[in-house]
Write a structure and sequence with these properties.
The chain is 45% helix and 9% strand. It is an alpha/beta fold. It has four domains: 80 residues, no CATH class; 48 residues; 136 residues, Ribonuclease H-like superfamily/Ribonuclease H (Nucleotidyltransferase, domain 5, 2-Layer Sandwich); 32 residues, no CATH class. A hairpin with a 5-residue loop joins strand 2 and strand 3.
Length: 398
């Protein structure tokens, strides 16, 4: 005999009432059909649930939300409210509004307030009575797009409308409406097409550019930098830094550049400044060593390469300039780097010196071969690298 004190769970088994078990000897066909339909509906519900989760995540990741959108027409609000009512039959209202990003206060305001029939109003005038009326908006549009006021700036046009008694709105409101409705002011000026390709030489020492720029030092004084650049190779042929604006310095710089030349005389392209058109330079031109063309006077445009070199020099290198000696040191370094080390994209990786002296014809081919080799090495290296997500699962034997 088993002692019930040692097995208290047996006492519950013996004292509990026995449940009645009902069995079916023959399976009902309707019951099986209902089971199949139930399983099919469960599978469909699982697919719809997964699709709903996917769409919700997609909306959240892409930033889809109704919190920053406005419905200016009545039809859009009615359609959205009808869709919410249909979804409310199977989903809680709080969940629906959270999914589409619509606040409860805004939803109940739409349900409570009568539908607004002003399709051009962003906010219902009844809830925001201080906004512009449709007549004021039409007046602003007419003045902005009118030929009569095309010479008036938008801010001045807003004040002119107040003087005329048409619209009393701030210029900020005018700018906001112009941006929102994309109104275009009637501008009639037609600008001429700018040159796409400037003057280009076919060989070294065929065309030169010269110019003078002013550089301010830390103490407030000025220094004057002159430079001569070759059009074909972009090589700086000569440069000079001076503390005074001496027109004769240009003639000295040009004489220094042409002293070692032989063959055809170069064409000098310069502006009409006094430093380029003076007695000393004219004497050098009359001697037959150079030919001079004045930019914007004898030609329609120059596209001077020296201007772009000034921009690169000042914006990328010349910063702390305390004395003229420091300026000369910095310019000397940059000229050497520009001529001998820095490759130019227009020359497929060649430097100005290599273009000027014709010693860099092999550089583009070598760079292309090295580029292809680097791409192959990059592919091999990246294919050998793997992360825990890419590594296959391995079974460790005990």
């Amino acid at each position: 005999m088993i002692a019930l004190d040692f097995y208290p769970e047996l006492r519950g088994w013996l004292s509990a009432r026995r449940a009645q078990v009902v069995t079916l000897d023959v399976a009902d066909q309707d019951h099986l059909r209902l089971q199949h339909e139930l399983l099919a509906q469960r599978r469909r519900a699982d697919r719809l649930r997964a699709l709903l989760r996917l769409m919700v995540v997609l909306w959240k990741v892409s930033g889809f939300s109704l919190s920053g959108l406005r419905f200016s027409d009545q039809a859009s609000r009615v359609r959205l409210l009808a869709a919410i009512d249909r979804a409310h039959a199977v989903l809680p209202l709080r969940a629906i509004l959270r999914i589409i990003g619509l606040s409860q206060s805004r939803y109940h305001a739409w349900k409570r307030d009568p539908p607004c029939r002003l399709d051009d109003a962003v906010i219902c005038p009844r809830s925001a009575p201080h906004q512009l009326t449709p007549g004021e908006g039409t007046a602003i549009k007419e003045m902005v797009t009118s030929e009569q006021y095309r010479h008036v700036p938008t801010a001045t046009l807003a004040r002119l409308a107040q003087r005329l008694g048409k619209v009393f709105a701030s210029p900020t409101t005018w700018y906001r409406l112009v941006r929102r409705f994309r109104w275009r002011r009637p501008r009639k000026r037609v600008h001429p097409a700018g040159p796409k390709v400037g003057i280009r030489a076919s060989r070294p020492d065929q065309i030169w550019h010269i110019d003078t720029t002013v550089i301010r030092l830390l103490d407030g004084s000025r220094a004057y930098l002159r430079a001569l650049i070759d059009n074909f190779s972009r090589r700086i042929l000569a440069w000079q830094v001076s503390t005074t604006f001496d027109p004769g310095g240009t003639a000295v710089l040009l004489h220094q550049a042409v002293s070692g030349l032989s063959g055809d005389k170069p064409t000098l392209l310069a502006d009409a400044g006094v430093e380029n058109c003076n007695g000393a330079v004219d004497q050098l031109i009359d001697s037959g060593l150079l030919k001079r063309i004045v930019a914007m006077t004898e030609i329609s445009f120059s596209n001077s390469l020296i201007e772009s070199w000034w921009r690169a020099l000042k914006h990328q290198w010349l910063y702390t300039l305390d004395t003229v000696a420091t300026l000369e040191k910095l310019v000397s370094f940059y000229v050497t780097e520009h001529n001998t080390r820095l490759p130019h994209s227009a020359f497929r990786g060649q430097t100005p010196d290599e273009m000027y002296f014709g010693t860099g014809e092999h550089v583009p081919g070598e760079l292309e071969v090295a580029r292809q080799a680097a791409r192959r090495a990059r592919l091999e290296t990246n294919r050998k690298i793997s992360c825990p997500q890419c590594e296959p699962l391995t079974v460790v034997a005990n």
